[in-house]
Amino acid sequence: MWRRVASLSSSISSSFLAQTASRLNSWESLTTGIAQQAKGVIAPKEKTPFITFVLGGPGSGKGTQCIKIVETFGFAHLSAGDLLRREIASKSADGAMILNTIKEGKIVPSQVTVKLIQKEMELSDNHKFLIDGFPRTEENRVSFERIIGVEPNVVLFFDCPEEEMVKRVLNRNEGRVDDNLETIKKRLTVFQALSLPVINYYSEKGKLYTIKAIGTEDEIFEQVRPIFAAFEVCSVSAMILSIQLCCFFLLHFESENLTTALFLLNLFGIFVMFLI
Ligand SMILES: Nc1ncnc2c1ncn2[C@@H]1O[C@H](COP(=O)(O)OP(=O)(O)OP(=O)(O)O)[C@@H](O)[C@H]1O
Ligand SMILES: O=c1ccn([C@@H]2O[C@H](COP(=O)(O)O)[C@@H](O)[C@H]2O)c(=O)[nH]1
Ligand SMILES: [Mg+2]
After folding, report:
1. CATH class assigned to 2-226
2. Ligand 1 pocket test: which of 102, 168, 181, 195 has the largest number of ligand atoms within 8 Å of its C-beta?
3. What digits encode the pLDDT tens for the residues 234-247?
4. For residue 193, what are the contacts with CB-CB under 8 A and spacing of at least 6?
5. Are 13 and 22 a contacting pair, CB within 8 Å?
6. DSSP for residue 51
7. Which strands make up the sheet holding 208-212, listed edge to edge?
8. What average pLDDT does the structure give for the chain?
């Protein structure tokens, strides 16, 4: 169901209505998320997904910050790299190809990665997703939009100096096959050539939030926190405003002309949310 809602909104994305609908979708997604978190109930699949892409070079701290975002804002964390490593570990049909690609610091074919992400999204009870380390190429991006049928609401870019990224990766000590100087150099070249255009694309679309990824983990998270907090404040404000307006209209029309009242309420609500 969320796929149908999302593809409908992306098909009219150039218009004023689409912008308004997209904001409404974002707020509605987050509002239901907060309410459901508070009540401890599982989000039904019908909810519009709220998607955040988490981008940045190797070792820029994407995974580390995703853990903090999950703890604070209740997202589901889907790391594309982890999903690919799981395929290798499970010795699936694509496992050997994925292992070689990762060792070479190259990019796994889009179809393979998008299918893994899609499966995780469908299995998840959450509707707020952090997609970590994806899309890494323009082809990845287009493939995601075509297969999943949605665009991200937010794109985070962890901007970190190369020297620092190399240092962090070499100190990571998790036994990853790509955590060696030779592969890191290749990954940095791939990042510059193929991933930066994706980041520029989202910058032009006004969806990019750049984080200066130097300092302690907590200092970096203090740059991330206000981004999601702002979305939550908007959604809660919109919800409160709607309830207030609803009460006002119901009293004003004494329930006689309820349909007109609700129509006016919706129009006003959309107008106010667009202004916010
Ligand atoms: N702010 C920080 N300062 C110092 N070290 C950090 C910081 N953030 C993360 N690290 C460490 O750097 C290493 C790389 O971090 P992380 O795995 O989060 O990066 P990543 O962007 O997910 O990398 P990759 O793309 O290779 O998966 C980890 O060992 C992590 O503990
Ligand atoms: O969308 C993706 C994500 C990852 N890869 C490959 O996996 C490694 C490791 O990814 P991390 O996100 O750093 O864990 C990456 O270098 C690629 O080889 C991919 O192909 N597509
Ligand atoms: Mg990572």
Report:
1. alpha beta
2. 168
3. 777 777 777 777 77
4. none
5. yes
6. E
7. 76-79, 128-132, 50-56, 154-159, 208-212
8. 83
